[in-house]
Structure formats: structure tokens, C-alpha cells
Amino acid sequence: MKIKELTLIPILGTIIFLTSLIKIPxxxxxxxFQMSAPISVLIATTFGPKIYILAGLIGSFLxxxxxxxxxxxxxxxxxxxxxxLIFILLVKNxxxxxxxxSSFGTSLSRIVLSKLVGLPLISxxxxxxxxxxxxxxxxxxxxxxxxxxxxxxxxxxxxxxx
Length: 162
Description:
Mean pLDDT: 88
Shape: globular
Number of helices: 8
Helix content: over 70%
Order of helices and strands: HEEHHHHHHH
Strand order of the largest sheet: 1-2
Number of strands: 2
CATH architecture: Orthogonal Bundle
Low-confidence stretches: none
Number of domains: 1
Radius of gyration: 15 Å
Strand content: under 5%
Largest sheet: 2 strands, antiparallel
């Protein structure tokens, strides 16, 4: 692993953690929207699976060790991250991935959560629908705005050339 990756991964992990603290509340339990969802899609799409999964692990463990998340939250977050990666690797279309990877990851994580806590899946999926839509739109907008600025950095140029 290159030195640039070793410094980039913790920074991205911290960004994932910090954006997970930004939540848009909802009147329905479990329907709040976390800003880390579109940021996760952006990181996965821009930097690739290895950097994203390592950064995601750091973000999840920061959340756990700071007392913000519990073991169920870590499991759900890891399933969400794997769902994003699976979607991106299967679809291979950047625009479609930006719009729908978060929805796929959220759906997959809600399936696992329903099994963990014994709640009906529909009661976990319906409240998440607004957040899924917001996440797809924001991931696309963030990619268009942020990625063009990141192209000036050497690490992204190296990643895109490989």
C-alpha cells in the first residue's frame, strides 16, 4: 500500500464518521437521513473498493468507540457498505451507481436489521424511502461538484489512470 493511500484512508474514514453525525430528523422512527450515505457512495465511486471499505471500517469503529453506535449499528453499516460495493461492481455505470447504490445498500442493511431485531422488513423499508431518494440525488450532485475539484490532486489522477 502506498503512503498516499495510508494517509488518505484515515482521512476518508474520519469524513465518513463526521458526516454520519449529520442527520436530517424525521417524524417517523428510523427514517432520519444520514449525510454519510451519499458521501459513502461518492468515496466508493471515486476511490475504489479497497480504499472505501478500509475507510468505512475506520468510520464505523470511530462511531462505535465514541459511543454513538452499538454493535447492531456496526453490522448494519458494514452491510450497507458491502451493498454499495456490490451494486457498483455489478452495475459498472457511474451515473446509475451514484443514483441507486445507496438505495441498494440501505435495502440490504434493512433486510439484515429486520432479521437481527425481529421486525417486519416493510416497517423498516418504508420509513427509509425518503432518505434513499435524497441520498441518490445528493451523491450525484456531490460527485459532479466535488470530483471535478479533486481531479487536481495527484492521488485521484493516479487512481483514475490505473
